[in-house]
Amino acid sequence: MKKSNILLIGFMGVGKGSLARELARTTDFFVLDSDDLIESSENRKIKKIFKEDGEAYFRSLELKVANWLENHVTQTIISTGGGFFAVENLNNIGTVVFLESDFDSVLNKIMNHPKAAKKIKKRPLFQDKVKAKELFDQRQPLYAAKADITIQTAAKTLQEIAVEIREKIGI
Ligand code: S3P
């Protein structure tokens, strides 16, 4: 049987964290975020982890988080870092919801945010827009392949997306 968690996957800046909080506000689920779990247990920011120990080390921490989530967490909305989808046991953790968008919408959302500079600065893989677009294109089919449910998010409000997810999952 599928675990009762809901995992939100998708590209950086698509709104996984905000949506997780919106879903928590309107259901009896709690919320966890894979990046927050990594930062709190390492006691340093993602940016610093990438800088000091490299991406491969960060990915190994994601695997550790994924194993812990599978074995210990239920009834939780889990927002994930943009590369977390690659963990082998992703689909054992819960129902996987892919938040789909197009690159320009993601970029506009980040750029129009009042804290745009901070949002970009904290994401090592979003420093170069051309490289970020390449990563985006490369990952879209990979996200879709892991998804139980795919939700189009461009041009929709947080509330509209949350309603759609709740209806599709039945929570
Ligand atoms: C990453 C996305 C980030 C964070 C890390 C790597 C990625 O999370 O996990 O910087 O590989 O796409 P967000 O998707 O929350 O920005």
Key structural traits:
Rossmann fold; 5-stranded parallel beta sheet; 5 strands; globular
Tell me briefly what this model is:
The protein has 171 residues and is an alpha/beta fold. The chain has helices at residues 16-25, 34-42, 46-72, 90-93, 103-111, 116-121, 129-146, 158-169, and strands spanning 5-9, 30-33, 76-79, 94-100, 149-152.
Can you describe this structure?
By secondary structure, the protein is α/β, with parallel strands linked by helices. The chain has helices spanning 16-25, 34-42, 46-72, 90-93, 103-111, 116-121, 129-146, 158-169; strands at 5-9, 30-33, 76-79, 94-100, 149-152. It is 56% helix and 14% strand. The chain has a five-stranded parallel beta sheet with strand order 2-3-1-4-5, with helices on both faces. The longest helix has 27 residues, at 46-72. It is globular. The relative contact order is 0.22. The structure holds shikimate-3-phosphate.
Count of beta strands: 5
- Report the end-to-end length measured between terminal Cα atoms: 17 Å
Shape: globular
The arrangement of helices and strands along the chain is: EHEHHEHEHHHEH
Write the layout of secondary structure elements.
Elements: E1 5-9, H1 16-25, E2 30-33, H2 34-42, H3 46-72, E3 76-79, H4 90-93, E4 94-100, H5 103-111, H6 116-121, H7 129-146, E5 149-152, H8 158-169
Parallel strand pairs: 1-3, 1-4, 2-3, 4-5
The chain binds shikimate-3-phosphate.
